[in-house]
Amino acid sequence: MAGRKKKGGLSFYYKEKKITNEKIKGVLGYLFWVFLAVLIAYVFVYSVGIRTSMIGTSMEPSLYNGQEIMIDRIIYNFLKPSHGDVIVFRPNGNEGSHLYVKRVIGVPGDIIQIYGGTLYLNGEAQPDMFVDKIADGGLAAEPLTVPEDSYFVMGDNCNNSEDSRSANLGCVNIDTVYGKAWYHLAAQKEGLGFIK
Q: Which residues are catalytic?
């Protein structure tokens, strides 16, 4: 019986590994999802992950001194501030100043006047806008037309607020607006929630 001859010595078997299209697609798919997750996290942090603290009582009863506020920095890239929005801005664009938080009362082209303790918007009285009568009309004691790309803002606590009625502040230019205050994180007198 003829047998096979065994070759002497050790033999190592090396199997060549092949990179297949399926493996490449799998790795690229994984990298895509990692990139997408990082992008979404970045956009979320940039747009709504930024917060500031309310300083002072100018926005009571809506917001209280020391209350943490989340800021949406993306929305005004697509939309313009509108009546009733609570905006966060740097007064006169001063980078050294703390952020101000005020409510938009007038948009570009609106005519604002405060007469007899009442706010008038485009000639119509807004008696329910503030709890108290407005003691000082400031710049709006005479009819004031809101300039282009600017906003007339006031604090909800109208008699304890430095706002667009003051010559130091005036109307707020859109370039100084940091974002929209949309959610409060801590409250002294009420729970968490969206800003109205």
A: 58, 102
pLDDT tens for 96-124 read: 788 999 999 999 999 999 999 999 999 99
User: How far apart (Å, rounded) are the C-alpha atoms in residues 14 and 184?
Assistant: 64
Q: Give the total residue count for the chain.
A: 196
Q: pTM of the prediction? A: 0.73
The enclosing H or E element of 181 equals strand 177-184
Owner of token pair 């409510």: 103
Q: What is the CA radius of gyration of the chain?
A: 30
81 SS3 class: coil
Per-residue pLDDT reduced to its tens digit, 123-132: 999 988 888 8
Residue 43 CB contacts under 8 Å (≥ 6 apart), including other chains: 74
Please report the domains of the chain, with CATH numbers, ordered by start residue: 51-191 (2.10.109.10)
